[in-house]
Write a structure and sequence with these properties.
It is built from 18 helices and 18 strands. It has helices at residues 20-30, 50-53, 60-63, 65-72, 92-98, 127-134, 159-169, 172-175, 182-189, 211-215, 236-243, 248-260, 379-382, 390-404, 406-409, 418-427, 435-449, 462-467; strands at residues 11-16, 36-42, 78-82, 101-104, 110-111, 124-126, 151-155, 195-199, 223-227, 282-287, 290-296, 303-312, 319-330, 333-336, 340-341, 359-360, 363-366, 369-376. Helix 6 crosses helix 7. The radius of gyration is 24 Å and the shape is globular.
């Protein structure tokens, strides 16, 4: 048999998960010096992962990266299998048997839990659910969110928490020309939410959201953003953190918090500036140094109990410790956004405490021993960190390790690759789609959005998508 990676003995690699890291890994393989066959498998019909179902609809420029990923799917070495659940429709062992290597790039698909009493009360949700719901993820289409309460609480102060708060704070007119799903827009139009609290366990010097996300809270049409002036007073360690030469980004964030702590003036109407100034009907409150300790209610959420915190420790090593002082907040809706974590996949080692696949530079390990043929990239490899582009370096690192293993991957056995995938899925009567079929669905979404002035109107049921292809 010819050398692995030659024209008549292509390196066959299966990639599980069609988010950014999956596409970057495929692109790195296809642009390597070796001849390859790359088979990308995705649970949904739609590719692109969180770029499609996680990025906020009012951030269209970030979604533009989809165009780049679509170009990566053009080479003949690339094969797409959408609507395929690895672990159910086809197993990791199936993929290992038919490929030289398997790369798991599933991302981090769920939220970390608060671990407090009452967390499962009706009205208590994960940010993941809400984000996926308003972004048209088919698995979350039927989720229900009761927006009839005046007060909503978001636990966490990262960018995802900011997205959730912003969507709750915006008017329908601010959202209707985005790619937000119509079912979500209909529910948001009836929202009674007036007070949104974004609560973090640490202080303003440790804020996790970017200055760009934070700045947007000052640009909302009908919502004012507030910070208690006393809560932007810093301890000495936090002052030292901001004074550090690498603290420019944090200083900018802190300055925005200070801006929101200034007294508010009545606003002039946008459309009729000559009319009497008015107070915006919604309020967003950013609060610090609080940790939820209990959710209370009779079968549904009614109150959130917080413990106030104090920071202690050296600069950049401060921890938030409870003071014993409690406070109550009446609320009927809560979203936890304290970090994503991965979920296990049958046949792949998993570190449950960390929520990632254990690995060494992308080589999957079990008990610190490298598992042959298995690799990983993206959030499931390193945890939920970085921006979309961060996944490129992450995937490239994994592919570099895979290339170093090329001789070990050559077991001198014929690997049938995508031919065998077709056989297995056909035998199980799985209705999978290729990338050309996805482009048909994509085109329909774009066309359906045009009459509404939207970039697209997403299909939110898998059967709707498949129905276009029959």
């Amino acid at each position: 048999m010819s050398k692995l990676g030659s024209a008549d003995n292509r390196l066959k690699v299966a990639i599980v998960g069609a988010g950014p890291s999956g596409f970057y890994a495929a692109d790195a393989l296809i642009n390597s010096e070796l001849k390859v066959e790359v088979n990308l498998l995705e649970k949904l019909c739609a590719p692109y992962g969180l770029v499609r179902t996680g990025v906020a609809p009012d951030h269209p420029l970030i979604k533009k990266s989809i165009e780049k990923f679509a170009l990566m799917a053009e080479p003949e070495e690339f094969n797409y299998f959408g609507n395929v659940s690895v672990g159910e429709d086809i197993t990791i062992d199936d993929l290992k048997e038919t490929h030289h290597a398997v790369i798991v790039t599933m991302g981090a698909e769920t939220d970390r839990k608060l671990g407090i009493p009452g967390e499962d009360l009706k009205g208590s949700h994960t940010a993941t659910e809400f984000v996926a719901w308003y972004n048209g993820h088919p698995e979350y289409r039927e989720r229900e969110f009761d927006l009839s309460h005046e007060t909503a609480v978001i636990i966490g102060q990262g960018n995802v928490a900011a997205d959730v708060a912003r969507i709750l704070s915006k008017t329908v007119d601010e959202l209707k020309f985005t790619d937000i799903s119509q079912h979500a827009l209909d529910v948001l139009e009836t929202s009674k939410v007036k007070n949104i609290y974004i609560v973090g366990r640490r202080g303003p010097a440790q804020g996790a959201m970017t200055s760009k996300e934070l700045k947007e809270f000052g640009e909302l049409w009908d919502c004012d953003t507030f910070v208690d002036p006393e809560e932007v007073i810093l301890n000495k360690a936090s002052e030292d953190e901001l004074a550090d030469r690498n603290g420019r980004a944090k200083r900018k964030i802190y300055e925005l918090f200070c801006d929101y702590a200034q007294p508010k003036k009545p606003h002039k109407a946008r459309q009729f500036p000559w009319t009497k100034p008015y107070v915006k009907p919604r309020q967003c409150h950013i609060q610090f140094l609080r940790s939820p300790v209990e959710l209370k209610g009779n079968k549904k959420l009614e109150k959130v109990i917080f413990e106030k915190n104090a920071l202690s420790g050296d600069p950049f090593k401060q921890s938030a410790r409870g003071t014993g002082e409690l406070e109550e907040l009446d609320a009927g809706l809560l979203f936890r956004s304290i970090g994503y974590r991965g979920v296990p996949l049958d046949g792949v080692p998993f570190h449950d405490a960390w929520g990632v696949i254990p690995n060494e530079k992308g080589r999957v390990t079990k008990d610190d021993v490298v598992v042959p043929q298995l690799y990983t990239a993206g959030w499931i490899k390193r945890g939920p960190s970085g921006i979309i582009g961060t996944n490129k370096a992450c995937a490239n690192e994994t592919i570099a390790e895979l290339m170093q293993d090329i001789e070990k991957l050559d077991d001198k056995k014929e690997k049938l690759g995508n031919k065998k995938i077709h056989e297995i899925l056909d035998a199980k009567k799985v209705r999978y789609i290729n990338f050309i079929e996805w482009e048909v669905i994509d085109k329909h979404e774009v066309e359906n959005g045009k009459p509404k002035g939207k970039p697209r109107e997403k299909f939110t049921y898998t059967d709707e998508m498949l129905g276009l292809l029959t």
